[in-house]
Structures are given as C-alpha cells and as structure tokens.
Amino acid sequence: MSPTRANDDSPGAGKPWEHAKAGGSGADALAAQFVQSLDFDTRLYRHDIAGSLAHARMLAHVKLITGDELNQIEQGLATIHSEIDDAGDDWPGWRIELEDVHMCIEAALIEKTGDAGRKLHTGRSRNDQVALDLKLWIHDAAGQLQEKFDTLFHAFVELAGRDGRIVMPSYTHLQRAQPIVVGSELMAWLCALDRAQRRVAALRTVNQRNPLGSGAIAGSSLPLDRDHTSGQLDAGSPTPNSIDATASRDAAVDFAFAMSMIAMNLSRWAEQWIVYATQEFGFVTLDDRYTTGSSMMPQKRNPDMLELIRGRCGDVYGRLVALLTLCKGLPIGYNRDLQEDKRHVFAAFDTVCDCMDMAARIVATARFNEERIASRLDEGFLDATSLAEHLVTRGVPFRTGHQIVGALVKRCLDDGVKRLCDLPLEALNDACEAAGAGRDVLDRAVYDSLGPANVVGRYTTTGNAGQTGFETQLEAWQSRLGA
Ligand code: ARG
Predict the structure, then answer these.
(1) Which of 10, 254, 283, 330 is the most buried (most CB within 10 A)?
(2) What CATH number is associated with residue 60?
C-alpha cells in the first residue's frame, strides 16, 4: 500500500497537522525545540499505544474503520512498541519536529500503514489522548510504589524485631520526656508510611475516569462509543464532561501531593536518625556503606544518604508547588502550559523512588546501641509522669500528684540526686504531705513505678509506646507482611 503523504512543502514544515497556517512552527529551530516535549514524554509510549489500541478497536466496533484497517493499526502499533522497547531513546521515530510522543508514534504508524494509520486519530485530540496517557502512567507508577513500600516496611519490621525491645528515652521539644521502647518509635514511622501507602492507593478512587473520547474540548459528532473504549482500559468509566476531562490535571496534582507526603515522612525520619547518629546521642549506628568520609577530616562518618533524603524532599515539594501554580491561572479548556505537568510528575516520582530504595537499605543495616542508650537512661527523670500516675492510683488528684513530683524533681536537682528512685520512701511521703495529699500515701510499691525499665512495662493504653503497645503493633505488622 502506498501511504497518502502530506505534501512535504506544506507550510507546516514537517508538522503534518499544520496546514492552516502561512508558516510552520517547525521552520524556526528554536521554536521547534521550545515547544517539543520529547525530552520527557517518551516515557508515556506504552500508555499512549495502549490508548491508541483501545481507540482503534472502538473505531472498528462503531464501523468508522474496517476490520482490515484495525488489523494494520494493531500490527503497526505492536511493531512500534517493540521497536521502542529495543531502541529506547534511540528510536529513529523520535523526531523533534513532531513535538511529542503522540505525534511521533502516529507518524511512524502512518509510515507503516498509510491510510489505516491516518484514520487512527478519528474523533480524538492530543488533548484527551495525553490526559488518558498520564492517568494510565500514574496508575502504573502507583503500582510500582506499592512494591517499594513493601520493601521499606519489611526493613522497619525486621529492625523492630531485632532491636525493638531496647528501652530508650522519648523526646518532646527534643527534651527528654518518657521512656519508650525503640520498636514503638519504629512503628511510628511505619504508621506514617502506611498512611502514605494508602494515600497512593486511594489516588485511583478519586481519579478513576477515562478522558478518551472527549476530543479537543467538546467531544465529537462521530458515533464514538466511549464505554467500549473504557471497557478495554483500566481507567474507569468515561469522564462526564469533555471540557473538564481535557482541561484538568487534578490527578497529577494529587499524585504529586501523595509523593510529597512520602518525601515529608522520609525526610522527618532521616532528620531523626541524623540526630541519633551524632556522637552526642549515639543511639543509632549506620552501616558504613551509608555514610561518607570527609575530604579533609580523616575521622568522619557523615550520614550523607540520610541528609540527601531530607534534602531531596525539597525537590518533591517544588514539583507539587510547580503543578499547583501551573494550574491556578489557566482558563478552562486545554492550554499548552499543561504539557509541563509531566516534567514535574515524573521527577517527583523518580526522586521518591530513589529515596524509598535508599531508606530501605539504611534501615535494613542500622543498629540501635543498647549500651550507649542505657548508659544515660537515668538522666532526665523519665519516670516522673509514671510517679504522678502512681499517686493517682493512691487517690491523689492528678494535679496534686503533678505538683508533688515536680517538687521531688526540684529536690533531686538541688541535692544532686540523679534518680527519683534514690529518694527514700520517707522523702516521697513528706512531699505528699507538704502538698496536702495526706500522710503515708505511699508504700514501697512506689518503687515499681520508677526506673525506665519498669515504666515501659506499665503502659496499658491501646497504642502505647511501651512493651505491650509495641508487641501488639509488631505482631500486626508481622502478620500483615507474612513474616
Ligand atoms: N504534548 C502535549 C501535552 O503534553 C499534547 C497535547 C497538545 N495539544 C495541543 N492541542 N497542542 O500536553
């Protein structure tokens, strides 16, 4: 078959769709370079071809093309698919004057099939085409992220199984607060990451509508069967409004927000461990593979990988803000500004993937230093709240108990006594009496409420950061991961 070719001398200067103009945008190399998106949108080729196949089958179904034409289109697209699989960026069909992934693939199809290929774009615009491609891509990307979440979850759960029962201080305002077990803090990161995972999974429920068949803005006068197209794609039922379907990028913004939330939580965890890995804390030792040396100071083991996880969060936020800003001033209907959405969606995804992979390895190889943590566990009166709660069990109003323990802490500080449990029972009871709580409120059982190791065994509330709360959460995670 000899394909019907566009006249090469047409004013489109290489762009087979620019016939209405006196001059072609391809005629100025700078303009051609400026307007193209092949630098980033070629990674949509699988989704673009999937959308084209669904569209072509629908066109045959409603008899806008023949069965033979459909066969040619299917074979042509299959060949193009495997050509791009093999050649990647070097595929000769990537021609800058064709602007984007959509036109390059269509042009290659027309080269292979002639008029059959020239019918593929019937009732379709790049505007609904790219809206679909991006949704399909986001769906795939969300699937890839689920595997990364799994790897990261496993790493945290295994570390919790190993080092999770070590007693450590918790911090509010970065000041010593109450004793906890290491595992409960690891479970805290898992909680945040679990929400991040569910946020990614939920992207589908909000954005699961298929824009294909919306055309450029107004739909089509041809008898397209949008349900037929939708039935072939994992993109949901047809979008209800052709203008919104081609003009909105909510799915891209939602995706970038979901990426930002992963990045935010990883950044926060990275910051925590950077602090824990300092000489001053010494709570965590990072594997040598995940620290770097200094070009000048020979002794250094710097947590650069964690710092970069923290730092790259800024890139992901930037992509989200860029997308929000991109959309905020656009009149309804497609505008070329929207081409830029993919740049940000892809970059946010790539950065988050890298950070998740890196985080999983850092967690899998890290160690909490029990001796080091224990050596200073008696500092900071971590058991003060536990003593106040013990007083509640002896009938003392909490506010009075709080006052009594505050006075006892002050006394320790004044007298150079390091721990509340070093105070004699008499001194404890004197403080109760001084606060008007009565005589001999306490007996020797009070000492069971003191000392960090005792305290982590005494928390009873659901989700507590001590032994019972940790073991319950660990079991839940282990059975979830099948560990
Ligand atoms: N490359 C474009 C994009 O990514 C495709 C849509 C172009 N549509 C148009 N009418 N110029 O958004």
Answers:
(1) 283
(2) 1.10.275.10
Same domain, 146 and 38: no
Whether residues 317 and 285 share a domain: the answer is: yes
Q: Does residue 252 sit in the same domain as residue 115?
A: no
Show the ligand 1 pocket: residues with CB < 6 angstroms: 37, 41, 100, 126-127, 130, 334, 336, 338-339
Q: Do 164 and 292 have their domain in common?
A: yes
For a mutational test of ligand 1's pocket, the pick from 52, 94, 126, 136, i.e. the residue with the most ligand atoms closer than 8 A to its C-beta, is: 126
Cα(343) to ligand 1 centroid in Å equals 13
**Do 259 and 366 sit in the same domain of this protein?**
yes
CA of 108 to the centre of ligand 1 (A): 18
Domain total for the chain? 2
Q: Which of 339, 342, 343 to mutate to test the pocket of ligand 1 (most atoms within 8 A of CB)?
A: 339
Residue with CA closest to ligand 1 atom 7: 126
Distance between Cα 62 and ligand 1 center (Å): 26
Which residues form the catalytic set?
Answer: 173, 294
Max CA pair span of the chain: 107
- Residues forming a β-bridge with 210: 238
Residue 407 lies in a domain: no
One domain for residues 222 and 328? yes
How far apart are the C-alpha atoms of 365 and 348, rounded to whole Å? 26
**Ligand 1: distance of its center to the CA of 126 in Å?**
6
CB 130 within 8 A of CB 156: no
385 is a domain residue: no
> Between 126-163 and 341-365, two packed helices, what is the crossing angle to 10 degrees?
10
**Among the ranges given (24-38, 104-118, 224-238, 385-399), the one the predictor scored with the smallest mean pLDDT:** 24-38
In a domain, 7, yes or no: no
158: tokens are: 């295994």
Q: Are strands 209-210 and 237-238 parallel, antiparallel or unpaired?
A: parallel
Tell me which of 21, 100, 326 to substitute to probe ligand 1's pocket, judged by most ligand atoms within 8 Å of the beta carbon: 100
pTM exceeds 0.70, yes or no: yes
The verdict on residue 9 lying in a domain is no
Half-sphere exposure of 448 (CA within 13 A, CB side): 9
pLDDT tens, position by position, 176-207: 999 999 999 999 999 999 999 999 999 988 88
Q: What secondary structure letter does DSSP report for 294?
A: -
Contact 140, 243 (CB under 8 A): no
Per residue in 341-390, pLDDT tens?
A: 999 999 999 999 999 999 999 999 999 999 999 999 999 999 999 999 99
